[in-house]
Amino acid sequence: QVQLVESGGGLVQAGGSLRLSCAASGLTFSSYAMGWFRQAPGKEREFVAAMIRSSSSTYYGDSVKGRFTISRDNAKNTVYLQMNSLKPEDTAVYYCAARRGPPTAQAIRDKSTYDYWGQGTQVTVSS
Question: Of the candidates 105, 6, 9, which has an alpha carbon nearest to the alpha carbon of residue 51?
């Protein structure tokens, strides 16, 4: 049974930082592309960042580029999202997701192409 468990969310002031973690089990972690998405109240789930299996390529949403960094540790079956210079508009539930197969640059940003999802962790940025 595949499980993705996010942690590290919380309340932070604008300009602060948080590091999210997603621990995966029940899958061959190194064979999966891993992504982070977020969903604010009343909005659609949006792409935040993703990393392909080999960790050589990373992708970011325009709103987080230059502030967020995705990384993975295949030995620990864990993917991370370092979030710096946080803004109130970053407030959302953040979800970790796993995707089989080699993704195109477009597919890796598409939430419908992901196979497994975590339950999410709340990030709240106060102004």
Answer: 105
Structure tokens at 34: 């891993």
How far apart are alpha carbons 63 and 99 in whole angstroms? Answer: 22
Query: Half-sphere exposure of residue 8, counting CA atoms within 13 Å on the CB side?
Result: 18
Q: What would the pLDDT profile of 43-97 be if each residue is shown by its tens digit?
A: 999 999 999 876 678 999 999 999 999 999 989 999 999 999 999 999 999 999 9
C-alpha to C-alpha distance for 50 and 97, rounded to whole angstroms: 9
CA 62 vs. chain centroid, Å, equals 14
